[in-house]
Design brief:
Strand content: 15-25%
CATH class of the largest domain: Alpha Beta
Distance between the termini: 25 Å
Number of strands: 12
Order of helices and strands: EHEEHEHEHEHEHEEEEHEH
CATH superfamily of the largest domain: NAD(P)-binding Rossmann-like Domain
Oligomer: single chain
CATH topology of the largest domain: Rossmann fold
CATH architecture of the largest domain: 3-Layer(aba) Sandwich
Number of helices: 8
Helix content: 25-40%
Length: about 300
């Protein structure tokens, strides 16, 4: 079983925690540098028993943090308050900490970072210094990609990064590359692209959109630059206009259009659940555990396909 440390315990961290056991992973540590311990944020797996987390219960004295309100915990089965108690001494149960240290990593095989763009670079440098194999799914830090991956390579750890951990999206990217090559010989068809995300997303364009744009430009002989900004003019023939929309609760949609005067072909990938990213992150953690070297998620997919 692969031992996991979660860096960041927002929606993605909680989703990974819930699905970890089903993917032969054990969460041994939860580190959220931007928040103090709040047991109500933890969605532990299996068999909820309110008496076990009731601060007034005589059956389990001192197993939950002060001020714990059991009614605030969503009970997806088997809840044991000691599993999220920052003072728990049981080595088989995950620890909760606010800082990344050797002790707070709790002998994890792999750290999975789904934190915040502003914290990602600092988190990754600490993990590399501690020679911790790492999977990073946080976006918005890729201007530091060269520096971080160089440090990871020098530290001789396993380091796997990606803008999108959806297995479906990575297979979709391969279809996109092939489609661009096919349409490239037909000049009646112009290319443009669109990405949509929920209003809470912190960056624009998305990391996935940036990677898709690179892929499109590499496969096309007619497009050699991407325009992300609003256009107050006609796009040039060699420009790929890639628009971004933020609003509502959209988990994520990326679309590529091949448009002619006679018809339009649309290729689109839409996320229905964040579980797709969690499954991919857990697959990546199991794959990178015990390995050395720097890999992208797409390179991992390529190795699996081969």
């Amino acid at each position: 079983m692969t031992k996991i440390c979660l860096i960041g315990y927002g929606k993605m961290g909680r989703m990974i925690h819930q699905l970890a056991e089903s993917k032969a992973c054990q969460v041994v540590s939860i580190i959220d540098p931007n928040a103090g311990f709040d047991a109500s944020r933890v969605d532990p797996p299996a068999g909820f028993d309110a008496s076990r987390v009731d601060p007034n219960s005589k059956a389990t004295p001192n197993t939950s943090p002060a001020g714990f309100d059991a009614s605030r915990v969503g009970p997806p089965a088997g809840f044991d308050a000691s599993r999220v108690d920052p003072n728990s001494s049981d080595p088989l149960l995950p620890k909760y900490a606010s800082e990344i240290t050797k002790a707070s990593l709790n002998n994890a095989d792999v750290a999975i970072d789904f934190s915040h763009p502003a914290a990602a670079t600092s988190n990754l440098k600490k993990l590399i210094e501690l020679r911790q194999n790492t999977v990073v799914g946080t976006t918005g830090w890729h201007e530091m990609l060269s520096e971080i991956t160089t440090k990871a390579d020098e530290a001789q750890i396993g380091f796997l990064y990606g803008a999108n951990f959806s297995i479906g999206m990575n297979l979709f990217s391969r279809l996109i590359s092939y489609a661009v090559e096919v349409f490239d010989s037909f000049e009646d068809y112009d290319l443009y692209a669109l990405e949509k995300h929920h209003a809470q997303k912190q960056d624009s364009p998305s990391g996935t959109a940036i990677e898709l744009a690179k892929l499109i430009l590499s496969a096309s002989s007619r497009k050699d630059k991407v325009v992300w900004d609003k256009l107050d003019r006609r796009p040039e023939p060699d420009e790929l206009h890639f628009a971004s929309i933020r609003g509502g609760s959209v988990p994520g949609t990326h679309s590529l259009f091949f448009d002619s005067p006679a018809d339009t072909i649309e290729l689109s990938h839409t996320v229905r659940s964040r579980a797709t990213f969690a499954h991919g992150a857990l697959m990546a953690a199991c794959w990178i555990a015990g390995k050395k070297g720097v890999y992208s998620f797409s390179e991992m997919i390529q190795e699996i396909l081969c």
